[in-house]
């Protein structure tokens, strides 16, 4: 997927989408990427998911495979409201994967207070094309957590208070646009924590009171264009 686009447009058609692994979706999302002159520089096809069906799968405890999907307006806060769940009650998510997916939201893509089951959780190669991205208070089971090769076009991302179990946290080769990147009060496990070769651009980068424990921390070739970088009280 191209990353240097200035804008994009989404068109959803009533044409069946077949993923490489054989999963099928009744509709296809065509995402067209454009440059600063409005000229097309690439396009991608995704399976267009019904967000209410996604919420049903979460409620029923079904494995949630969103690889190669177009996911608009994902919000666990909305899920809680509809289902009468307390604002900070953890929502279990089983068997989660969203590789090479395309997220967008008017305000935010909201994974706050999610509880991911054991096993790899991967957003590898996904784009968060519009809106903030929130993982505040989330709990990840044992297994690697992968945000490598991702694009956050709104650079305001929050992982405040998240807890990671055994396994690596990979945030390599990612691009995070201007904004506040909040990794405060995180409890990492004993695996590697890597932000190698990630572009953070401008804006505050906060790791205040974050616990890295005994894992290896990799910040090599990370590019920060401006703004405060704060590791106060982190160990």
Description:
The chain has 235 residues and is mostly beta strands. The chain has 2 domains: 1-48, no CATH class; 49-230. 8% of the residues lie in helices and 37% in strands. It has helices at residues 51-60, 76-83; strands at residues 7-13, 17-18, 24-25, 28-34, 40-48, 69-72, 91-93, 102-110, 114-116, 121-122, 127-134, 139-140, 145-146, 151-152, 157-158, 163-164, 169-170, 175-176, 181-182, 193-194, 199-202, 205-206, 217-218, 223-226, 229-230. The strands form 5 sheets. Strands 1, 4, 5, 6, 8, 11, 14, 15, 18, 19, 22 and 25 form a 12-stranded mixed beta sheet that branches. Strands 10-13-17-20-23 form a 5-stranded parallel beta sheet, with no helix packed on it. A 4-stranded parallel beta sheet has the order 7-9-12-16, with no helix packed on it.
Write out key terms for the chains shown.
mainly beta; 5-stranded parallel β-sheet; 37% strand
Proportion of residues in helical segments = under 10%
**Overall 3D shape:** globular
How can the largest sheet be summarized?
12 strands, mixed
**pLDDT under 50 segments (min length 5)?**
none
CA-atom Rg in angstroms? 17 Å
Q: Give the H and E element order.
A: EEEEEHEHEEEEEEEEEEEEEEEEEEE
SS-based class: mainly beta
Structure annotation, total helices: 2
């Amino acid at each position: 997927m191209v990353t240097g686009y200035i804008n994009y447009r989404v068109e959803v058609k009533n044409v069946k989408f077949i993923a490489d692994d054989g999963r099928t979706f009744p509709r296809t999302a065509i995402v067209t990427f454009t440059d600063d002159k409005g000229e097309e520089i690439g396009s991608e096809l995704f399976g267009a998911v019904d967000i209410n069906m996604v919420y049903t799968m979460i409620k029923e405890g079904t494995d949630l495979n969103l690889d190669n999907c177009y996911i608009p307006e994902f919000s666990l806060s909305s899920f809680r409201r509809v289902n009468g769940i307390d604002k900070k009650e953890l929502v279990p998510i089983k068997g989660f994967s969203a590789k090479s997916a395309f997220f967008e939201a008017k305000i935010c893509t909201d994974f706050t207070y999610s509880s991911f089951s054991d096993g790899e959780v991967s957003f590898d190669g996904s784009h968060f094309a519009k809106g903030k991205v929130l993982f505040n208070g989330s709990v990840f089971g044992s297994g690697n957590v992968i945000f490598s090769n991702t694009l956050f076009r709104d650079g305001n991302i929050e992982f405040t208070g998240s807890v990671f179990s055994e396994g690596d946290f990979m945030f390599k080769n990612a691009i995070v646009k201007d904004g506040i990147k909040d990794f405060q009060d995180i409890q990492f496990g004993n695996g590697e924590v890597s932000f190698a070769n990630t572009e953070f651009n401008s804006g505050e980068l906060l790791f205040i009171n974050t616990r890295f424990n005994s894992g290896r921390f990799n910040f090599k070739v990370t590019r920060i264009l401006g703004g405060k970088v704060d590791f106060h009280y982190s160990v």
